[in-house]
Amino acid sequence: MPPDGLKNSRKRKQVDEDTYTPQNTVQLEMLTDEEDTGPVSSDDDETEEFPEIDSGSDSESDQEGIEDDDEQQSDDDSDELDSDASLRIFPKAKTEISDITGKPKRVYPEIEADYDSDSSTEDAPNRVGNIPMHWYDDLPHIGYDINGKKVLRPARGDELDKFLATVDDPDAWMSAFDKNLQLDKPLTNEELDLIRRLYKGENPDIGYDPYEPMVEWFTGKGKEEIMPLSAAPEPKRRWIPSKWEKQKVMKIVRAIRQGRIVPNKPKSTNKMEFFSIWSDQPSALQQPPAPAPKVRLPTNSESYNPPEEYLPTTEEQEEWKQKDREDRERDYLPQKYPSLRLVPAYDRFIQERFHRQLDLYLAPRVQRVKLNMDPKSLIPKLPSPSTLRPFPNYKSLSFAHTKGRARCLSVSPDGAWVASGDEGGVVSLWEVNVGRETKRWQFKNKVSSIEWCPRMDVSYLMIGVEEELHFLIPPNLPDDIYSRTKSLLSPSTLPAQPSPSPLTWESISLDGQSIDKPILSIRLPSSSGTPTHIAWHRRGDYVATVSTGGPQNNVWIHQMSRRHSQAPFKKVKGSVQVVLFHPTKPHFFVATQQYIRIYNLSEQQLLKTLNPGMKWISSMDIHPSGDHLIVGGYDRKLCWFDLELSDKPYKSLRYHTRAIRSVCYHPTYPLFASSSDDGSIQVFHARVYNDLLTDALIVPLKILRGHQVQEGLGVLQIKWCTRQPWLLSSGADGQVALWCS
Amino acid sequence: MSSQQPVTLTTHTAYPLPTQKYLIPTSWKRYHLSQLVNKALSLSQPIPFDFIIRDQILKTSLGEWCSENNVGEEETIEIEYVESVLPPQKMSDFPHDDWVSSIICDIQGCLITAAYDGHIRAFDYSKNMLASAPVHSAPITSCTIVPSTTTGDTLTIASTSHDLTASLSHFKISPSSTPSSNTPGTILATLHLHTSPLSSISSNTSGTHLLTSSWDGLIGLWDTTIPIIDEVPNINDDDGHEKKKKKRKTENEIKPRRKAPINVLKSHSGRVSKVVFGETINSDIAYSCGFDSTIRIWDIQNGVSTHTITAAEKPFLDLAISPDGRHALSTSTDRTLTLYDLHSKSTPQSTSFLHPSTPSCLSLSTNANQVVTGAYDGIARIWDLRSTKDAMTSFKIGGSDEGGGVMKKILDVDWKRGVVGVAGEGGVEVWRVGEEARK
């Protein structure tokens, strides 16, 4: 193989020589360079400087002499080289008689500066080497030649000369300053070519061919390697079935036969599936696994011998001990022991392991959520009650019923008189502002409800006693009102009864001082219970009564002008507690124990059912605008309904500690109040806006206390004074109180 | 010696001191200050004084007052001294069966009460009933004496009632030895205007005119002459035989004439609770207050309201006018007694005196610097108008001072000649109060 390579290289060299014939021209040019160098040495500048420097003339002559020698030697060498260049590596030395010493010396022929030679610039006269040339700036010479003679500084012209030289010599641009010789030296064609190649970004080597044909050493035609890897015969296992496989299969077959393995067994679904929660591969069914909790690495302060700055002071220790475990910044106290031997057993080891187990088990433990918020910020911003005056805030006077609980009261439409009834059957009429009883009626059974007729042109009040309704005329009426009232309640000609009714209307023609007795009585059907609630229509012609306590509920609507009563409902689901007339529309509100139904009386149909979500409704009242309803319940809740909004309460308030007995809107002021069995009355500011976007504003104003709780009963009924922000309340203690602003 | 406080002493009484700065030991109390004033004035008979510092009556020592009000020792305090009100002394009580709504102490040695049972009674101070007459069938709400030229024992009394009328009646007060059971009172005329119960009646000082106020918001102006014939026809005479019975009954007696008003003053939008004449003789000015939170000043001759003071949500209950007509004092249901300056037309300046209960009535003293109010908690309080914080003194009506009994509402007070008559739920009590009481 190697001989082939050598052959090839030689071949290539030959190819090179053949292909690079144009390089002969370059060599020719180099010859011209040599020719150029000749005149440089014998330049005009040098000749001009020569006469000034006397000492240098010897060396110059020497140089010339040497040069002559060199030429001769080169001639000789060339002869010798021609003859035996291939035989001898080193040139043959000649022995000459030195001019200086006069002794024979061996002179080697000049080494041709070839490609392989160390330096192509050996012929440079200055041999100082690669030193900063400014060392010779002050000297007349610029260095030494190979023979140790001084190389004199070549003469250098001034700037004008340089300019003239560039003008005269068209090739001046092709010269470069040679530091070593301290003169401008014209560049050779090779160097110019090198510069051009570098400038063009080509390979600076002339002889480099980037598109050299590939030499195929190992591949190609006729060079394929034919070499078998093994000559061993093929093993048996290549064609004989495996014995171990057979045994394995037979084992499975046996197991299948014995029934230990059931093939195509349906996967049991009821079996619990367990997941390796820490496994690397997330199962498809499960969430990506949570990273396992890791024990924190100990720090300096947990060392048995921590640096002093980690040790807590006594105050810090005290503080740490005072804090709860959850509040502590770290769950240990750094302690210092002089040696590891003195470190006691870790007291919290078991605890900590246990918690670690719980951590791994993902055991949920009680976590105290800290809320660092100002509790005051949770309270909604409400206007101050003092800006919402007037509202009742003190008890001005009270009127005492001695015979029993004051069940009911009613305020006259002009707001000057109060009628209150008690369980002893007494109905008292008294002035709101002085509290002096002016009239008293006595009945046999307990008075359960009183309501004043809202008409201003007549004046009478209606009371409900056991299965009877009575109508009373207050004393000291003006004559015209008295006569109108009398003719309404006890007309001289009775209107015809439209249909037979289970109720009987009985009028007493007035004679003498008969205002002591009711002028008109309505007898409800027997065993219908006590009429506990009376609701007047706004115009004062219709009045609805509700009787409870009987075997069945009775809602009756009575028409005063026609002296006629009718039952609006044939059958009512649940027991009716309260009824109400809408102040402007022909709507009728019926509250059973849990629901409130709104009926349209003119169209005779159910409009809406309200669900206040309470167990037992005790009372309700409608806002004078007719859009809002408050409902109080025995389960202490008070619900505010916006009738245009929803069937569900707009607000559900629960602030009484006992059952709510009575709720009431003020007819003119934005106030409402509720009374309860806890003996207190709560007064609220309730501003209702006309636009539908603004919700009603409810502000608690005042808790009025003063009624005694007797036998679990507190304030049984409240009513507002018509023209003043005053509240009247009747309590189980027999007191009827006036609360003034 | 303890520290001293520089003070100056001023007064509006008839006992002025030269303006001068005194250094008073801070341990001194009212008694010491009063002695100082007495010595400085060198009075022959010692007069007790009360001292008012910044609208407060000095009840503690000067030093304690200073520490309470954060007054330094360097500050000069201006102290006003007034003749002190002696602790009221109860003279006698007159138990009534029914509530007494009105009391008059105008007449020397005699007091007249009007009760809810419709009777007007007269007593002397030794608990003897001089006269008693049923004037109204319904409760009487107020009464007044009409000053007249009639001499002797006969008085003309005007009264208002729940029966929608007021009445003028002659009332004969006979000596206690011979109680006149036979008709001590004669109803001269009934005044018919109002459609609601009447609340108050007032007579001018010459006794020629009457003013009535009612719950229906009207004020009636009447003269006191008794007409010969009925000015208002009786509707009830025609219908109902029960009236005939009554008529038959009254035929025996002198039938009272039915009078109509001269003028009706309409401006109040709510109940008028009190109307009074101006204090000067033949005054044409009347003052009224009502539940519509206004005090109105009326020109009676023209029947128009000349000035209105509107308060915020103060339903007024009673009204009194100072003798010079400058100030109005009024009680309201918001538990205040309020002093209004009537002459400041633009914004009425007011001073409030707070009560723990509803003050239903008030009466000015003769020197017009002190006022007594009666409240629903049964306590009558005497206020000095210069001291707004506390009442000068107070006394409880109805039984012992320990307060064991129930509260008895006071409905009317009258303060004349050193005597305060207090009428209310528990009857009438007479207390001796004021500077005249000493003499």
From TrEMBL, chain A:
SUPFAM superfamilies: WD40 repeat-like (SSF50978). The keyword Aminoacyl-tRNA synthetase does not apply. Residues 319-330 have a biased composition (Basic and acidic residues). PROSITE patterns: WD_REPEATS_2 (PS50082). GO terms for biological process: maturation of 5.8S rRNA from tricistronic rRNA transcript (SSU-rRNA, 5.8S rRNA, LSU-rRNA); maturation of LSU-rRNA from tricistronic rRNA transcript (SSU-rRNA, 5.8S rRNA, LSU-rRNA). It is found in: Nucleus, Nucleolus; Nucleus, Nucleoplasm. Keywords: Nucleus, Repeat, Ribosome biogenesis, rRNA processing, WD repeat. SMART domains: BOP1NT, WD40. Residues 136-392 form the BOP1 N-terminal domain. One of its GO terms (cellular component) is PeBoW complex. Component of the NOP7 complex, composed of ERB1, NOP7 and YTM1. Within the NOP7 complex ERB1 appears to interact directly with NOP7 and YTM1. The NOP7 complex also associates with the 66S pre-ribosome. PANTHER family: RIBOSOME BIOGENESIS PROTEIN BOP1 (PTHR17605:SF0), RIBOSOME BIOGENESIS PROTEIN BOP1 BLOCK OF PROLIFERATION 1 PROTEIN (PTHR17605). Component of the NOP7 complex, which is required for maturation of the 25S and 5.8S ribosomal RNAs and formation of the 60S ribosome. This is Ribosome biogenesis protein ERB1. The gene is ERB1.
TrEMBL record, chain B:
Residues 7-65 form the NLE domain. Keywords: Nucleus, Repeat, WD repeat. WD repeats lie at residues 191-223, 265-308, 309-350, 355-393. Residues 232-258 are annotated as: Disordered. InterPro entries: NLE, WD40/YVTN_repeat-like_dom_sf, WD40_PAC1, WD40_repeat_CS, WD40_repeat_dom_sf, WD40_rpt. SUPFAM superfamilies: WD40 repeat-like. PANTHER family: RIBOSOME BIOGENESIS PROTEIN WDR12, WD40 REPEAT PROTEIN 12, 37. This is NLE domain-containing protein. It comes from Agaricus bisporus var. burnettii (strain JB137-S8 / ATCC MYA-4627 / FGSC 10392).
